[in-house]
Amino acid sequence: MARTRNSKSSSFISLNPSFFIHLFSLPPFNSLHNYSPRKNSRITQTSPFLSFCFISLLITLTFFAILLITFTTFFQNPLSCTGTSSSSSPLFLDSGFAAASSRSGSVQDEQITLSTGAMVPLPAHGVVGNFSEEEEEFWKQPDNQGYMPCLDFSLKYRKASAKISKEKRKFLVVVASGGLNQQRNQIVDAVVIARILEATLVVPVLQVNHIWGDDSEFSDIFDVEHFKKTLKADVRIVASLPSTHFVSKQTINRDLPFHVSPLWLRARFLKQLNQEGLLILKGLDSKLSKNLPPDLQKLKCKVAFHALRFATPIRELGYQIARRMWIEGPYVAIHLRLEKDVWIRTGCLTGLGRQYDSIISRERDSHPEYLTGKLNMTHAQRQLAGMCPLNASEMARFLKGLGAPISARIYVAGGEPFGGTQAMQHLKNEFPNLLTKHTLAQNGELTPYLEKSSTLAAIDYIVSLSSDVFINSHGGNMGRALEGHRAYVGHRKYIKPNKRMMLPFFEDSSVSEQEFKRIMKKLHRKSQGQPEPRAKKIDRDVIAYPVPECMCKQ
């Protein structure tokens, strides 16, 4: 649990036993200790009365001490269910982020606490103005059912923290690979594994991304000091490996099986850590079990939603761009997965014609290892199975089916679409107010980051987090991260297209437009960001479904 200078780290007061030892060593309490029947008669006659008085005084003091502990515990409440009851307001008003939404100056961070350090969106807009009934329904936020962030770690966890947070002999180094949100997942798991193994975590190493050519380091993307301070009561984190632990040749553990448990990790690595003092892990993506003990689930939420805050320059720019969308009224953010590598990996058709499809087919044939999922499925079978991202034309029809107004301002997150402007034309024709980070940036704000895909993805994340409605076209790490994050900050509207059920109606010309809208709304009425317990399906990640481990009813 994070600590600051002016706040206590726990709901409980720790009393040093030496206090009581010192108390009993002082007169008149030492008379109780020194009393003996073999003393002289004068003392023997007066001691029972004195003993009674002193015991009564001791009981009284103990009673008041218990009252003091209870009083402090009740009012301190550092982590339990903090927030507002409105689903349209952010649960944590981080002073830095609030400043970014109202001015363009630098962000001045206050003391880091869990209530002020969380990444929060700009406030959701209320449904006011000249909206039709259908439009009001589209912009309306889901009922959060009273759920609030609630990271109440157990007493056993907090007791163990005293030792784990001071560990100086065993070190864990983790190499995180992939895109930004894939790296975020691995960083979250790295903290949890360090806690399981009771090791000091070295700030994770971000592997150079060869697909996008991004060589950003951890400190380029994330606020390192905030990361360390927020987690200092859970795991000791250091910027680099001490020289005493450098070795000429160290084994890098790459081949972890999927869904490893805390027991498996301890059995496999604890002996090595104790002997060598160093463990290097690589390739952590989706390797840690999703079904962890409650305290470790809460730790995952603490890392993902509180500790992993973007670096100040990224936060400032991200919220400036978000505010340019927000100030004009409610907006939709959509994550379109139309990049070239996505089409290669999914084995789907681009919808742009034979010329573009043949380019993808040739590259896929030359790199069959890139293809994910079943190899023996046709393009049509993949699409009907929901394995393909929605293209711009399908997304436009989906938005219309949900009742999005034609005048809706739509922020498009994601990389450069394969096919350029042609790939987006259908969506642009139906919804002309289409915007991206590139069209919203001013005075060369993005110029320093044009070759930094992780920074650009972080900006997309911030703008998407602040949107009134978020729609994800094709799963992925960013979609899952935003699904959980939007839930954690008040269950902001999040629509996940039910592609398996809805795509057959896209091809059915006998379905009228009015009937199509009715079907789309019915299919997605229960999947708009309402609280959904993780326990409903096995192996769900708490980062995507923070109820009930990380959120409780007020």
Automatic annotation (TrEMBL):
<protein>
    <recommendedName>
        <fullName>O-fucosyltransferase family protein</fullName>
    </recommendedName>
</protein>
<comment type="similarity">
    <text>Belongs to the glycosyltransferase GT106 family.</text>
</comment>
<keyword id="KW-1133">Transmembrane helix</keyword>
<feature type="transmembrane region" description="Helical">
    <location>
        <begin position="49"/>
        <end position="71"/>
    </location>
</feature>
<keyword id="KW-0328">Glycosyltransferase</keyword>
<keyword id="KW-0119">Carbohydrate metabolism</keyword>
<keyword id="KW-0735">Signal-anchor</keyword>
<keyword id="KW-0325">Glycoprotein</keyword>
<dbReference type="InterPro" id="IPR019378">
    <property type="entry name" value="GDP-Fuc_O-FucTrfase"/>
</dbReference>
<dbReference type="GO" id="GO:0016020">
    <property type="term" value="C:membrane"/>
</dbReference>
<dbReference type="GO" id="GO:0006004">
    <property type="term" value="P:fucose metabolic process"/>
</dbReference>
<keyword id="KW-0808">Transferase</keyword>
<dbReference type="InterPro" id="IPR024709">
    <property type="entry name" value="FucosylTrfase_pln"/>
</dbReference>
<dbReference type="GO" id="GO:0016757">
    <property type="term" value="F:glycosyltransferase activity"/>
</dbReference>
<dbReference type="Pfam" id="PF10250">
    <property type="entry name" value="O-FucT"/>
</dbReference>
<keyword id="KW-0294">Fucose metabolism</keyword>
<keyword id="KW-0472">Membrane</keyword>
<keyword id="KW-0812">Transmembrane</keyword>
<comment type="pathway">
    <text>Glycan metabolism.</text>
</comment>
